[in-house]
Structure to design on (555 residues):
């Protein structure tokens, strides 16, 4: 068998071509087995061979050759002359002894560290910001038809009052609207292309950084110049104001003048400033033994959801039409009934104290000052679980009427801002018809965390909807039944807490989905819905008992 032409599953020695490689000459870049090391070194005793274990190959810096002394390598740099020097250059006394010198090895390592930091900043912080900008512009483009349809409808109402004689003038105004829409679309599309071009440059820079990080070439490495400062100067935000239709009282004379006019859209630039993420300085450790502070008997059948109104009050809901508010001592403060008379699938609370609930049929309602209004009405999809985000948006999990698809939709009021359904390969992020309940929450780092019971997983995506990780249980479980996530919440440390009703416990994960520990010593019976207040007190629903337990789990 010719080893040069055969498929090999291991690296072979470059000298004998047969033995499995064990060492590596980091100066000559040659694979070596142990018997061939002596032969390789004896071929040229003048060469400074560097023999290392094969696993540590290419870790020795490759210094540049000295221009004045070809047999020497330069291991020093003159900071005043900005040239490389070997030991013979210093011994020749041709170089100014007062100049400040730096060891190339130190410069090389420092630059390597800078490359690594730049790569991490570009990948973890800068590029996601550009992703968010691109998503924001895409959502604006996606909403253009809806916004302009409202605009056209408003003007059409005025048109009906003016009757047939003003049709020609109205047609002229509609043409102006179409022109504005095209211009609006053109501005946003151009801005999106600019963002994509910058993203492309960033990806190219990332590739270059990957190559430089793996390279041992000193000269290009120490001449590396960071572009992160350039990328951190975010492009200005393009704000395009909607055109306005200004109607005037109807008169038959001078109709064109009295119809009103279209105020053209205008474009302004709003400066964006990149702010690096700051670490959480108020770290709170987990208690070794969590403790139950209080048990609130809600009287609910099949208690499903709990939402914190403030540090003193909570809202609860279960298998009846009643949604109840209790103080943390367990005293009932208020009860409201659902509009339809059916039980609410889930509840959430806005920062202003307004309650929001889904009816599990087609509608999401908002209750404020004892007034109930429909804020979302769906066709083809059924709303299920809810989460109010830190920005005041509403995240809604929903499934298709044929119960084969699930997705998360972000709303601002009643307007769709974002839809999260598929990963980058076009595959569904969430399970289909096995289990319809999918509790959802937003983490402090703006990740969107779903307890996907049907998939037996916690599915976490970033703010742009890109998959970060799936948690399917601890590496080695001490529980009897398979993990099936149900309720979910997050705390001030960006830890994720998810209830495991079948095993009567709660899993605590870190921000990256690594299992930390269980809460399983609080006599929990079938935990379902969860929430955490601003003091990091945990409230746990017990499905059958109808109790909410307040648990302290942080020091």
């Amino acid at each position: 068998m010719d080893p040069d032409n055969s498929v090999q599953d291991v690296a072979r020695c470059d000298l004998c071509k047969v033995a499995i490689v064990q060492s590596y000459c980091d100066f000559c870049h040659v694979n070596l087995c142990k018997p061939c090391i002596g032969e390789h070194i004896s071929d040229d005793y003048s060469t400074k061979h560097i023999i290392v274990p094969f696993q540590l190959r290419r870790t020795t810096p490759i210094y540049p050759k000295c221009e004045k002394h070809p047999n020497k390598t330069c291991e020093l740099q003159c900071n005043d002359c900005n040239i490389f020097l070997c030991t013979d250059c210093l011994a020749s006394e041709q170089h100014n002894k007062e100049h400040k010198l730096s060891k190339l090895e130190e410069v090389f390592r420092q630059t390597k560290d800078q490359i690594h930091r730049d790569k991490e900043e570009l990948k973890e912080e800068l590029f996601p910001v550009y992703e968010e900008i691109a998503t924001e512009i895409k959502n604006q483009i996606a909403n253009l038809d809806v916004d302009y349809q409202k605009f056209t409808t408003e003007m059409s109402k005025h048109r009906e009052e003016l009757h047939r004689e003003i049709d020609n003038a109205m047609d002229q105004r509609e043409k102006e609207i179409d022109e504005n829409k095209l211009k609006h679309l053109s501005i946003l599309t151009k801005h999106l292309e600019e963002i994509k071009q910058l993203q492309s440059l960033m990806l190219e820079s990332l590739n270059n950084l990957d190559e430089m990080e793996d390279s041992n070439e000193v000269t290009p490495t120490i001449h590396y110049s960071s572009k992160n400062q350039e990328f951190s100067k975010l492009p200005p935000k393009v704000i395009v104001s909607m055109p306005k239709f200004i109607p005037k009282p109807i008169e038959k004379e001078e109709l064109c003048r009295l119809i009103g006019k279209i105020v053209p859209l205008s474009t302004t630039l709003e400066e964006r400033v990149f702010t690096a993420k700051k670490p959480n300085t108020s770290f709170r450790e987990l208690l070794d033994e969590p403790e139950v502070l209080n048990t609130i008997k809600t009287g609910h059948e099949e208690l499903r959801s709990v939402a914190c109104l403030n540090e003193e009050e909570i809202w609860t809901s279960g298998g009846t039409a009643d949604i109840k508010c209790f103080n943390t001592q367990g005293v009932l403060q208020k009860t409201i009934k659902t509009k339809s008379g059916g039980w609410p699938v889930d509840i959430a609370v806005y920062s202003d104290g307004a309650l929001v609930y889904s009816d599990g049929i087609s509608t999401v309602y908002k209750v404020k000052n004892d007034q109930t209004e429909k804020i979302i009405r769906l066709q083809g999809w059924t709303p299920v679980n809810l989460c109010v985000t830190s920005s005041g948006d509403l995240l809604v999990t929903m499934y298709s009427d044929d119960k084969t698809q699930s997705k998360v939709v972000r709303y601002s009021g009643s307007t769709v801002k974002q839809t999260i359904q598929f990963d980058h390969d076009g595959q569904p992020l969430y399970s289909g018809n096995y289990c319809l309940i999918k509790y959802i929450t937003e983490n402090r780092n703006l990740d969107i965390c779903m307890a996907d019971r049907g998939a037996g997983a916690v599915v976490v995506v970033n703010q742009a909807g890109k998959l970060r990780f799936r948690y399917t249980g601890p590496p080695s479980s001490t529980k009897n039944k398979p993990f099936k996530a149900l309720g979910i919440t997050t705390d001030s440390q960006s830890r994720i807490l998810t209830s495991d009703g079948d095993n009567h416990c709660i899993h605590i994960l870190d921000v990256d989905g690594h299992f930390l520990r269980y809460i399983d010593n609080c006599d929990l019976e079938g935990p379902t819905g969860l929430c955490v207040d601003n003091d990091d007190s945990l409230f746990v629903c017990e499905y059958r008992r109808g109790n909410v337990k307040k648990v302290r789990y942080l020091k």
The CA atoms of residues 155 and 245 lie 7 Å apart. The mean pLDDT is 87. Residues 106-270 form one domain.
